[in-house]
Recover the amino acids of this structure.
């Protein structure tokens, strides 16, 4: 017969443990034993058994089975799909029915019959394998759905974005730690998910923490987890994000917000490859790939003493720089048309495109909020717009006080003309005809201005 898998046996009778260990050793992949139920969670985290053989009675009494039911409840809180088989010397029909209703897989009386015990364990192992396969397929479907969803969001043909795509392709066979740099709204989280889908850890857990939205005092418990009673509101134990992400990928968004004390704890866990939950002295091994992102000047933070240089070395085996939208040329129009199509369908509007003037207006704007700002502006334009084409008046830009101040400082016609031509050339990627179209002048007029300005 095939190996049954990993078995955890929990019983306070050492003779029973010895006998079961001896009996099952030829049939099981590995066996661990515990004499008290308080060790179950530790073995579930470290040993990860396929089947738990659990005695119903321990120190409290010999016949009620209440301790067994309490242990079963705790096991199912940790892993709702755990395969638990009860054992007791005081078996009766009521207990068996109650055990199955409570979530146990089966019920074995003591003393056991060898063939029946092996058959029960084999059946339990098949159930465990079936549940694992179902979960794997569900995760695969979810990941493919997510991939299809954000594949449509990763739109770009500019040289800057092609360089990003090329880097991601080169990383597809590695699980090196990645640091993604870019302004707010450039799509760092989308790139992180693409990296995950193109990695060897695809189909394994993908866990995210937005460090910009979690208070510092909660970060440690979120990352490392906690034991019941570790603090006032810790009513039950909880695994941390790093533990949940084991064998998969952990995405730390806005890592520049991490305080120095927490940077130290994160570095320790990366180097030692284990963590301890708050309130616990036990260590839990981890194996995660880190993808981090920030809009901060991380190297300036290192120079200022606000970010640990040794942690930076650990998280940026490879750096990926996401370009701001203003430097992506015609990608602005491609994205605008994509969002137009999406929101026209969502709000049931008969809109099919943008006028040339509308496109020029979008290309001339500096997009301080990047792709996220473009998305919001396109949604608003579709909601409030009429007709089949969006016009310049459909787009309302809100300049910040800083931008207004900068505009007042540079109200010089020659400077403005130079800036406009330089931007048009950048957006058109050096194409004179397209740059002239952006500027609303002829090719020959643009040639004269380029010569005049020495460009």
């Amino acid at each position: 017969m095939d190996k049954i898998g990993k078995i955890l046996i929990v019983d306070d009778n050492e003779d029973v443990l010895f006998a079961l260990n001896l009996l099952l050793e030829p049939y099981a992949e590995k066996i661990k034993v515990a004499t008290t139920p308080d060790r179950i969670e530790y073995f579930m985290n470290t040993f990860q058994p396929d089947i738990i053989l659990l005695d119903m009675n321990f120190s409290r009494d010999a016949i009620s089975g209440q301790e067994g039911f309490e242990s079963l409840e705790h096991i199912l809180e940790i892993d709702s799909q755990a395969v638990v088989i009860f054992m007791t010397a005081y078996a009766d029909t009521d207990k068996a029915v109650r055990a199955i209703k409570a979530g146990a897989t089966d019920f074995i009386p003591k003393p056991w019959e060898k063939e029946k015990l092996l058959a029960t364990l084999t059946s339990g192992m098949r159930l465990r394998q079936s549940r694992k396969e179902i979960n794997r397929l569900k995760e695969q479907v979810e990941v493919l759905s997510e991939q299809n969803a954000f594949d449509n969001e990763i739109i770009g043909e500019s040289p800057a974005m092609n360089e990003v795509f090329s880097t991601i392709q080169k990383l597809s066979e590695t699980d090196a730690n990645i640091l993604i740099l870019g302004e707010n709204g450039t799509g760092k989280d989308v790139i992180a998910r693409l990296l995950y889908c193109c990695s060897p850890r695809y189909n394994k857990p993908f866990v995210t923490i937005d460090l910009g939205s979690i208070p510092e005092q909660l970060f440690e418990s979120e990352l490392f987890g906690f034991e019941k009673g570790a603090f006032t509101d810790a009513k039950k134990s909880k695994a941390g994000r790093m533990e949940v992400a084991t064998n998969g990928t952990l995405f730390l968004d806005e890592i520049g917000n991490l305080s120095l004390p927490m940077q130290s704890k994160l570095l320790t866990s990366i180097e030692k490859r284990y963590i301890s939950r708050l309130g616990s002295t036990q260590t839990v091994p981890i194996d995660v790939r880190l993808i981090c992102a920030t809009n901060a000047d991380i190297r300036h933070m290192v120079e200022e003493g606000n970010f640990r240089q040794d942690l930076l070395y650990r998280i940026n085996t490879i750096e990926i720089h996401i370009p701001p939208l203003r430097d992506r040329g015609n990608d602005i129009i491609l994205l605008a048309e994509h969002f137009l199509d999406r929101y026209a369908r969502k709000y049931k509007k008969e809109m099919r495109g943008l006028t040339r003037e509308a496109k020029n207006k979008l290309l001339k704007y500096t997009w301080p909020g990047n792709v996220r700002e473009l998305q919001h502006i396109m949604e608003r334009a579709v909601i409030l717009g009429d007709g089949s084409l969006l016009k310049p008046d459909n787009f309302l830009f809100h300049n910040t006080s800083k931008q207004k101040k900068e505009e007042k400082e540079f109200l010089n016609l020659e400077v403005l003309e130079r800036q406009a031509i330089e931007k048009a050339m950048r957006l058109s990627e050096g194409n004179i005809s397209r740059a002239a179209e952006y500027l609303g002048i002829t090719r020959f007029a643009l040639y004269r201005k380029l010569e005049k300005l020495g460009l």
Remarks:
- The first helix runs from residue 14 to 24.
